[in-house]
Design the sequence.
């Protein structure tokens, strides 16, 4: 299951804060975490973020699911840092990584995609004079998020079809059918967008 | 009901003739289109809301030419695709339904209110904030229909909307389509779904080979395939 786009419905204070403020807060939080120079500072940041998850009443299982996909990256980076920079540096780098992802996840879980897109569209409005269509950019971003699970499904189905036919793994046997199917889906989605009045 | 008129419609993809000499006027409440694979029924359905332009001839909906007035026609004709995954644009259920109203001129609270009403009508209100890709096939198709209906079209064209569904979900979607006050044009392979329809058109190799009440048209189709 993909993490992107997983809004977790709720009515907490964090859910009600306008998306623009949340994105701004996320930016400040990430800068603050990256500026931390002592492990205790990261500890405080981790507590604040944990408090944020509690405030938003995000179940532990859902919160954990946001960080679990990072395990191999954390392991790799952690081992690398311990060997070349020492344990304290490893804690700082891995901690910063985990906290920044957790902050971003907290914003994602408490904000509807459409609210985020509204913010993007508002920010892009001044670019209208240069020919940028904010609505179109917002739609493209929404479609990008929507297409991730579709592409995951396509790759999974192509992989299953390959296994069912008893053929071994090869990039060609995966990429060819997956690209063809993705293009077909894109074509069908284009028709559906026209049918839903996107060309109005 | 709207009057959907095909006049001397001819269509080809490359060298392959898909529709030939199509002259039809559809004004009944519930209209079924059946035919073997490649018979031209999906192309015919797509012409009704201007997704496909005929190579020659014209298709009109209440006098509006689907080629020249495509946008106006699409505001009056909603389209439900076979695979709802291709039709769902937004990441969550309520957002996808609300997407249909983004250019309606309604305020955000009005859009939210209408979205809630439509989701309740389709028993999807509990899933309003759920990711669309986690819905069952039947729920996805209901969502696709809800997203079309919220715009208030006069005509719903559904291109094999039950093909990817199990029997229970297929029956649910069909009952919904058959019971709609809007005019419905349904392309299907499930002949039993057409029992309650007013008219069934049978296509074979791009030509109309039978046209009438469900019993006679479906019998003609089954004889054709025998």
Sequence:
């Amino acid at each position: 299951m993909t993490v992107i786009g997983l809004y977790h419905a709720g009515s907490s204070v964090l859910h009600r804060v306008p998306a623009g403020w949340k994105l701004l807060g996320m930016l400040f939080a990430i800068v603050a975490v990256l500026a931390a120079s002592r492990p205790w500072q990261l500890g405080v940041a981790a507590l604040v973020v944990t408090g944020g998850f509690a405030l938003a009443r995000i179940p532990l299982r859902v919160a954990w699911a946001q960080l679990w996909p990072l395990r191999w990256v954390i392991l790799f980076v952690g081992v690398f840092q311990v060997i070349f920079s020492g344990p304290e540096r490893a804690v700082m780098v891995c901690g910063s990584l985990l906290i920044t992802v957790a902050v971003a996840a907290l914003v994602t879980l408490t904000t509807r995609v459409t609210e985020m897109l509204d913010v993007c569209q508002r920010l892009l409005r001044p670019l209208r004079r240069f020919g940028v269509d904010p609505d179109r950019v917002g739609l493209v971003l929404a479609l990008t998020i929507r297409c991730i699970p579709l592409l995951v499904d396509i790759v999974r189905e192509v992989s299953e079809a390959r296994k069912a036919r008893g053929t071994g793994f090869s990039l060609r046997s995966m990429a060819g059918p997956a690209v063809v199917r993705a293009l077909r889906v894109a074509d069908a989605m284009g028709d559906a967008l026209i049918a839903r009045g996107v060309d109005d | 009901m709207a009057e959907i008129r095909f006049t001397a419609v001819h269509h080809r993809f490359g060298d392959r003739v898909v529709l030939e000499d199509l002259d039809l006027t559809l004004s009944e409440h519930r209209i079924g289109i059946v035919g073997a694979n490649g018979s031209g029924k999906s192309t015919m359905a797509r012409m009704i809301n201007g997704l496909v332009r005929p190579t020659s001839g014209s298709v009109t909906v209440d006098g509006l030419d689907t080629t020249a007035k495509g946008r106006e026609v699409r505001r009056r004709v909603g389209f439900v695709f076979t695979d709802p995954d291709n039709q769902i644009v937004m990441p969550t259920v309520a957002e996808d339904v609300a997407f249909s109203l983004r250019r309606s001129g309604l305020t955000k609270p009005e859009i939210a209110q209408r979205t809630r009403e439509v989701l309740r009508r389709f028993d999807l209100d509990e899933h309003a904030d759920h990711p669309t890709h986690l819905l069952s096939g039947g729920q996805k198709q209901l969502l696709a229909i809800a997203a079309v209906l919220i715009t208030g079209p006069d005509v719903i064209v559904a291109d094999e909307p039950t093909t990817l569904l199990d029997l229970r979900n297929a029956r649910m979607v069909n009952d919904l389509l058959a019971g709609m006050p809007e005019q419905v044009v349904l392309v299907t392979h499930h002949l039993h779904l057409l029992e309650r329809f007013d008219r069934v058109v049978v296509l074979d190799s791009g030509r109309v080979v039978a046209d009438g009440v469900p019993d006679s048209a479906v019998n003609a189709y089954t004889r054709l395939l025998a």
In short: DSSP finds nine helices and no strands in chain A. Chain A has two domains: 13-111, 124-195. Chain A touches chain B through 30 residues (CB under 8 Å).
